[in-house]
Specification:
The chain is mostly beta strands. The chain contains 5 helices and 37 strands.
Length: about 575
């Protein structure tokens, strides 16, 4: 959005507010200027931060913050001044958007080499721009703007990481930081987009609109100033920097003419349209989501649309958490909200593996999450072993309410539970547990790494629905299939205990999300998911398997068992870092 407001400081210190309703088209319609302050000539530099915020650098190099409360109608209403910095001694200082203040250092001569040094471009972010509080983000230092053969004479900001510079020979250059919205520094090669730019004051009001105030001189015959006209230009391709222009169109609303000379003329700030602001916010959030693994990562699939709140912040909800921006220029903050507890509700023996009629039974349970955002640090697999239950006979119910100590982070692809039922002979149960952990963990790392590679390459498959995962293929492998193979062939003959059978249960993220919906501090849908079974005692409840028809009979060598789990959701807010 083109900002229609322009401020001018006369040599006598009066501050004038000008309003150009034709700013977006260059029409000659202007409102009459309004005087809104005095003594402004005492400042070394004055520039706008947008939305009425004006910064001024005092003679002692303090940075002062003002807010022109009447910036929309030109009324003389103010907040400030407030001192928000010191030591602001620079060659050039100008504002970007939403608290970004650019400064170019003075050039100095290196006495050792005889070459000029300094001239670096610095970016300060004033976090307290809205209220004048003394809050700043870490300063960023970009490359040197020390163009030794063609020094920068004037420099001003466009928008969205765009800077224009005018060299001493009048050439106009376009500079763009393509990583501006994510806080990085990827600068395009400067593009020359004009010549003959020799003006007293030059500034942009957004969307490629640039005002240039000509130099003025005293007519010795009349004692009046001549020249000093204001020209309106429109850089048509202001986002990419091709040399396409509309204008100039001469303006009469503001000019250093007659008996008036302006010490400074500056924009009311670069204001971005709400639609563009929303797009920037959406792009930043989407980029962060990709860098966590998109729909298969720790946040899952987006639920609902991007929401802009009254204070200008943005919130996008997901199945398992949220990504927010304090404003559209702020870095994303993400939190995961849903965790869970997994308990072995019970195991029912329907027949023994041992011909003698009783077993020494134990289970090895492995819970796996293919988290593409694991970064090689978080555990993808947790394996636990029950105690060895002696004298198990057909009809016995064992391992009631056995809570597993740990489960991995839940992701958009849900949780997979591998269960192996063993009949103990004379083997080492812990050694078997550790081998199963190793086998499944190696497979899980391969699978998660494939998902991470897909996310890093923005593979569209990760942005689609999370449906049947067995044949889902990415980066040349089927990540969910490689953790569904049986372990029987891998451990046969390695250990002295008998494997009765092995199977897997799957908990989809959609079910976990539904169970975690709270009402009055309760989880009614989770309560409704719990059920009992005639084969068990009435006090035993479970929700895994999710449907009765999904119950599995573990059988082999004459033994037969059924296994039941209870998943309990927990709402715990945990920060998430994008690691891809």
């Amino acid at each position: 959005m083109v900002n229609p407001n322009i401020y001018a400081i006369q040599e006598d210190g009066k501050l004038l507010w000008h309003h150009h309703p034709g700013a977006s088209t260059g029409s000659g319609h202007w409102e009459a200027p309004r005087e809104i302050g005095t003594e402004w000539h005492k400042f070394k530099k004055v520039f706008s931060g947008g939305s009425g915020v004006i910064y001024a650098i005092a003679e002692n190099n303090d940075l002062l913050w003002y807010r022109h409360e009447g910036y929309q109608d030109g009324s003389n209403r103010w907040d400030g001044p407030k001192t928000v910095g010191s030591g602001w001694d620079f060659e050039h200082v100008f504002c970007g958007a939403n608290g970004d203040i650019y400064a170019i250092e003075h050039l100095s001569m290196d006495i050792r080499t005889g070459r000029p040094s300094g001239g670096h471009l610095l970016c300060y972010k004033h976090l307290g721009i809205t209220d004048g509080s003394y809050q700043w983000a870490e300063t960023k230092k970009f490359g040197s703007w020390n163009f030794s053969t063609n020094k920068v004479k004037q420099v001003f900001s466009g928008e969205e990481g765009i800077i224009y510079s005018i060299r001493e020979n009048g050439d106009l250059f376009f500079h763009k930081n393509r990583d501006y919205h994510t806080g990085g520094s990827i600068w395009d090669t400067p593009k020359k987009v004009g010549n003959g730019w020799s003006f007293e004051h030059v500034f942009s009001n957004g969307e490629g609109v640039i005002y240039a105030v000509e130099h003025s001189n005293i007519d010795l015959r009349t004692g009046r100033r001549v020249g000093g006209h204001t020209q309106w230009y429109h850089h048509l391709d202001f986002l990419d920097g091709t040399d396409q222009w509309e204008g100039p169109k001469q303006q009469v609303g503001i000019s250093s003419r007659g008996y008036v000379k302006f010490k400074n003329v500056f924009s009311g700030g670069v204001d971005i349209s709400l639609a563009r602001e929303k797009q920037i916010a959406a792009d930043k959030i989407n980029d962060f989501h990709w860098r966590t693994g998109k729909n298969f990562g720790p946040l899952g699939i987006a639920t609902g649309s991007l929401n802009r709140t009254n204070d200008g912040s943005y919130v996008q909800n997901y199945q398992l958490g949220v990504i927010s921006l304090a404003n559209f220029t702020a870095p994303p903050l993400a939190y995961k909200s849903i965790q869970g507890l997994l308990a072995l509700s019970a195991v029912k023996c329907f027949g023994t593996e041992d011909p003698g009629g009783n077993d020494q039974t134990y289970l090895i349970i492995t819970v796996t999450s293919l988290n593409p955002n694991f970064g090689g640090v978080e555990k993808l697999v947790y394996t636990s072993r029950t105690n060895i239950q002696d004298n198990v006979e057909g009809g016995n119910i064992i391992f009631q309410n056995h809570t597993l100590q740990n489960i991995p982070d839940i992701t958009g692809s849900g949780l997979k539970i591998h269960v192996a039922v063993f009949e103990h002979e004379y083997g080492d149960a812990d050694q078997i547990r550790d081998k199963i952990q190793q086998i499944i963990e190696e497979a899980a790392i391969r699978g998660a790494s494939a998902l991470a590679a897909g996310a890093a390459g923005a593979d569209a498959k990760l942005a689609g629905p999370v449906g049947d995962l067995i044949d889902f293929e990415i980066a040349g492998i089927k990540p969910f299939k490689i953790i569904t193979f049986g372990i029987a062939d891998l451990i046969t003959g390695m250990f002295a205990d008998d494997l009765v059978d092995e199977h897997e249960f799957f908990i989809p993220t959609a079910n976990i999300m539904e169970w975690a919906q709270k009402e009055d501090e309760n989880f009614p849908k989770w309560q409704a998911s719990l059920r009992t079974n005639g084969a068990l005692t009435p006090n035993i409840t479970y929700n895994i398997p999710i449907r009765p028809e999904d119950e599995i009979l573990f059988e082999g060598g004459g033994g037969s068992y059924k296994v039941y789990f209870k998943f309990t959701p927990k709402v715990v807010w945990i920060p998430i870092e994008a690691k891809l």
